[in-house]
Sequence to fold (138 residues):
Amino acid sequence: MAAEQEQKQEQKQEQRQKRPRRRLRSSTVVLGGMGVLAAALTSCGSEPDKRCVDRDSYDSLTGYKIVGDKNCKSGTSSSKGKGGSSYGTGTGTGKSGRMDADWYYDSDVDGRYADYGTFSRSEAVDRDGFGCSGSGGG
Fold:
């Protein structure tokens, strides 16, 4: 019995080897290559998703309130430096009208609130995805 099964397997293997190899059409190759190229280019962007939020508006249920981009200084942190707390005091803008606005990166956005992100741009950029170097981009 074992010899018969072995013989059948050998015959199947011989038949597979005799079949001509199927050639891929050039359009299939081009489309596949375009997909790989697109994935490589988009998976490691130098600028992470960011929202301008009021750092003092944090609520444990909703997150930080998203405010207008004009309230965040372009490219610089408004306060607290790099090691700033990721949770506000919950005091809001108060009567003075001043707010502690800062860029909040890679957050989950729900309506006018953002949560589960980071205030550190370098932390948001350094994801080490497909096509990314260890140093991040930009």
Q: What stands out?
A: The CA atoms of residues 42 and 131 lie 9 Å apart.
